[in-house]
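Crash report, auto-generated. Payload:
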Amino acid sequence: MNLNLDFSVVLERWPSLLDGAMVTLQLACIATVAGGAIGILCAIGRRSGPPVVAALCEIYVEGIRNTPLLVQIFLVYFGLASIGLQLSAMTVAALALTINVGAYTTEIVRAGFESINKGQIEAGQGLGLSPAQVYWHVILLPAIERVYPSLTSQFVLLMLASSVTSQISAEELTAVANYIQSDTYRAFETYIVVALIYVVLSLVMRAGFFGIGQLIFPRRRRLGTPL
Amino acid sequence: MSPAPTSATGQDPAVRLSDVHKSFGTNKVLDGVSFDVPRGSVTTIIGRSGSGKSTALRCIDRFERIDRGEITVCGHRVHEPSLDLRALRLDVGIVFQSYNLFPHLTVEENIILAPTAVKKMPKAEARELARRVLAQVGLEEKLHAYPEQLSGGQQQRGAIARSLAMQPKVMLFDEVTSALDPELTGEVLKVIEQLAADGMTMVLVTHEMAFARGIADQVVFMHRGKVHEIGPAAILSSPATQELAQFVGTGL
Ligand SMILES: Nc1ncnc2c1ncn2[C@@H]1O[C@H](COP(=O)(O)OP(=O)(O)O)[C@@H](O)[C@H]1O
Ligand SMILES: [Mg+2]
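Recovered output after restart:
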């Protein structure tokens, strides 16, 4: 075995790698926030919307969960192009990732809603809370707290999956890696470095979500137990 | 437009059920139920499992809609479509068998939620109120505890305090000790007895016969969706019907 690794030419490109990592993180943040919002709205739509809305939400969720991300990205990319919308690769990537994670978020939040028992809701109603107040205080907030660990795992998975958007030349980390390895002929070294950067990004996201969780869920901060 | 609650003369009962009928599908659960609960009095509803006790109680707070008959609670005409549900729920407090404190909130937050959200009470005032109602149920030291840190009896007392914080005119209790270990029921029953002594109007479904006998101004014995026997607590000692005699005899 003659393993001859040379990282120097890869590491020389650290500014590009850093740029790529930042784009990846940016995509992940956009999709987390927008997809999270879509997911919560669709979960509400499925649970309490009129039948048409509930059905549409379900079609969306099942459609996304049963097709590959790469195909979804191409669908958005070529779909928008075919109706004459020329958006940047970055915009298309952010859009596709948002649509994708929104569907998974819907499922997770819906499971959270289903974990709230009827007695809790009746207790809220019995206290005179309005339907909207019951939804917010008795259903949504505890449901989100309960599924927060699953949600954050999903968002980290999404960040890793965003590497697929290199296929439409979004300038994220994997696209940068592809470019560097074809330029330096140091493919193995390049992907080792990139893998390590992905690990760091995962850890950064997990730490971020942990901090946010501590901030917005006082019960979790004080007891440290799952709800 | 909902009609204004009729003016409360001292004579009006706090709760009146007149010929109330309620079915779930083909299952007739309430079959012409009538009784009055005078202001400041305690009515206990007893009867076998499935006789319609919970349903009767839930109809009073409009958790179930009735098919026929009339229910009036503190002037609210509960059976009418124009009912102001929010106003009804402000006047009625209800506590269920499963202590339904909200798990993500502390005891204090559980208590101040409705006064601040529904009555728009300032937070400081609501906190003061929380302290008062918790003292009433002997739970002051658990102000900042989360429900999971409490025993079942403490959670149930917390749920009672949460209800009291809305200063209801009528309290409904549905077998609030049934889910508790026997050694914990006493502390909850004591709280309810104190409420009765303070003059709270109450309707309670209970399986605790000694408790029912001790606290009730009026006992309603339900059997197959009907009020089978009704009267002062003394009817438990000298039942007029065979069914009540049997029920009291088996201690169920
Ligand atoms: N939401 C409901 N849907 C269908 N049937 C119900 C419902 N609630 C109660 N019932 C039925 O009504 C009957 C009386 O129930 P309930 O009022 O809970 O009796 P109790 O409290 O005296 O045990 C039972 O046969 C029960 O199965
Ligand atoms: Mg019952």
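Post-recovery validation: Chain B has a mean pLDDT of 94.
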